[in-house]
Amino acid sequence: MCPIKYIFILLIAVLVILGGVSAADQPNQQDKLYKIGVLAKRGPDRCLEKWRPTAEYLSRQIPGGSFTIVSLAFEQVAPAVKDGRIDFLLTNPSLYVEMEILYGVRRIATLKNLRSGKPVTVYGGVIFTAADRNDINKLDDLRGKTFIAVSERSLGGWLAARREFEFKGIDPYKDFADLSFCGTHDAVVYAVRNGRADAGTVRTDTFERMAAEGKIEISDFHFIHEHEGDHSEYKGELYNSDTFEDYNFIHSTRLYPEWPIAQLKHIPDNLAEKVAFSLLNISSDGPAAHAAHAAHCAGWTIPHNYQSVRDCLKELRIGPYKDYGKVTIGGVVRQYGSWLVGLIIIGIAMAVAIVNILALNRRLLSTKKELEEEITDNKRQKIEKEQLNSRLKASVDKVNATKDFLESVMEGVTNAIYVIDLEDNFTLTNRASSKITGYAVDELVGQSFSMLLEGDTLLELNRQLTRVKALGATISQFETEFVRKNRTKVFVNINLSPLYEDGKIISVVGTAEDITRRKELERQLLQAQKLESVGQLASGIAHEINTPTQYVGDNIRFLQESFTDMTALLQKHEQLLARSRQGGVTTDIISEVEETKKEIDIDYLLDEIPQSICQTIEGVERVSQIVRAMKEFSHPDLGGKTLTDINRAIESTLTVARTKWKYIADTDIDFDAELPMVPCLPGEFNQVILNIVVNAAHAIKDAIGDDTEKKGTIGIQTRQNGENVEIRISDTGTGIPEEIQDKIFDPFFTTKQIGEGSGQGLAISRSIIVDKHDGSLTFETEAGKGTTFVIRLPIDNEQD
């Protein structure tokens, strides 16, 4: 091997040493279990109870991954991180900073604790004594006293207070009569209360929590050096300039950011991003509320700056800063060892180079001849280069032709095609985009995608774009509304996909299809289905109205005849009264009155007339009830949801459809009288109830066959189930066969004979409940016993 090659080998070795070249291990795609190490400040059982729901939530949110909690004592954290026995670490800030410096862990989110109903992202320490210790009122009074804390590694339970002591010139290891640590915050509080120590320190919110749990009375304690008013002695050192104004918990120290969760070095960034995104979506009132409640937190926020924690550790010279400020040979070797080795190698390399330069000089003459030969080769290479350039030009021409073809294809399609950057601005569109939006191509390019959206549609599409840009998700068949340039609206069907460059998402490509016509056809189809239902019910409703109308007419005719008879009797009484006034009452006139009473059967009339009047009133009320139900069933949906009495809407629909079920089924109604009003489209909701009730009646008819003596049962129940109203409509029909259960919501699918059903009822019903009300429509069935359809509507469904 020639000497010059030795030089290159030595230089490469220097670069390897200085650069610390290493290959990142690829994650084991077969290992799906991820371990989250958690500092168990209140013991392993409490740790698992508190954080297991969060691990379960992450397992649901991240496909292909399963998360579990590993509880760690203070002294177990460093070995677990060093040996890679965990994948993520949730710990206090001081331990995090130490693990970051020593082992390269990286924070991905900061905990938002929930204290007194408010989210809190900072905390500190509380220095306290028993309330009856009048001899201890300030930090200097602690000299010569016994003191107890949680752990030498606990930030809120010792390090924050120690920093304040040393700021005041107090060395707790020398100036205290005794310094001890008992492991948990609660134990420290009990020790001071019970007189086993003169004073102690715990993290902020400990006293408020224990008081809320009924374990202590805050009045039993006195708190030292609580920050109030002016904090000029700490000006410029606080974690946040507004911290003390907004922080409502008892505290004696400066405040520091809350616990972070961090990824270990072997965890790939894409997994860490998914974990962070899922954690940031946790809130105390959202879908992941169980995880938040179990952890007693309000969720997670973006990772905070932990410089204040580093400053604390530096001042105390502990952990990774134990030698901070000291210059030692060992420290220099540890910090600059690779550079020293590199310099030595470079020196050796330079010495070798000098020797070899002399040798190289001798070789120049022989090299000259070689160069002449190379010139000849260069001429040949020049010719080859010209040939290569010719081929490259041909390739460029081909690429340009392909580009022109693709542009013509893009301009020829009827759907809008567009590209937006990571700031949601258009960078490319086609002519179809102009046709749909009303804006020219040059008016769209450079403008924000949000100019086409407003209100809830803007918020929802921003959420979808965030999923594409943050997680690389693909959004398909997302329906929304664009606001055109002339402020009219157009329904569109959107697809979104990420565009990558060197493995990173650089923009989003999307398509938009104008589905306004389709939406109008769907509306017309729904109206046609509704009119079809009304037409099918018309004869039954007419019959329902005709029956009470007939006996109302019969009773009125009876009353008319009775009125004529009563008039004749009244006339005879008038004659009798007139004779009585003249003093000439005769037996003839009395006989005529008696005869008239007998002819008209006055006792019968007095008995029957009140009954006829009552029956007439009942008949009119029945007709009014049917008409009122028909009016409520046909309630027009004038452009938006209204607060609706679900129970009343179902009653009206049952009344309108009575002829469809009354001969083959009885109804079993179980309404929740306390059911809240629900925002919905009343007319379309009534149509859903009608479709399901009519289907139930048909199913019962199939079950009982021609047996006119037998009836089935249609059960209707309403209940509030959490944040939803639940309607269950059951029948005692034949049930749904297993082989068609996955098809019953398909458009035009029906098991009925031709002419008996269009197959649109359940498809339209599902579209109304799911697409228009953000609810759900499911079913439970058992062959031979019947089917139950379950409708769930959100109570807080925002009105349009």
- Residue stretches low in confidence (pLDDT < 50, at least 5 long) are 4-30, 228-244
- The counted number of beta strands is 26
Provide the residue-averaged pLDDT: 81
SS-based class? alpha+beta
The proportion of residues forming helix, as a percent range, comes to 40-55%
Kindly list the characteristics that best describe this protein.
7-stranded mixed β-sheet, 19% strand, alpha+beta, 800 residues, 23 helices, 5-stranded mixed β-sheet, single chain
What is shown here, in short?
The chain is an alpha+beta fold.
SSE inventory with pairings:
Elements: H1 3-19, E1 33-39, H2 44-61, E2 66-72, H3 74-82, E3 88-90, H4 93-103, E4 106-115, E5 118-120, E6 122-123, E7 125-130, E8 146-149, H5 155-167, H6 172-175, E9 178-181, H7 185-193, E10 199-203, H8 206-212, E11 221-224, H9 243-246, E12 256-257, E13 260-263, H10 269-280, H11 289-294, E14 297-301, H12 307-316, H13 329-412, E15 416-421, E16 426-429, H14 431-437, H15 441-444, H16 455-471, E17 475-483, E18 489-501, E19 504-514, H17 516-582, H18 587-600, H19 602-633, E20 642-644, H20 646-656, H21 658-661, E21 665-670, E22 678-680, H22 682-704, E23 712-721, E24 724-731, H23 761-771, E25 776-782, E26 786-794
Parallel strand pairs: 1-2, 1-3, 8-9, 8-10, 21-23
Antiparallel strand pairs: 3-13, 4-5, 4-13, 4-14, 6-12, 7-10, 7-11, 15-16, 15-19, 17-18, 18-19, 20-22, 23-24, 24-26, 25-26
Helix pairs in contact: 1-13, 5-12, 17-18, 17-19, 19-20, 20-22, 22-23
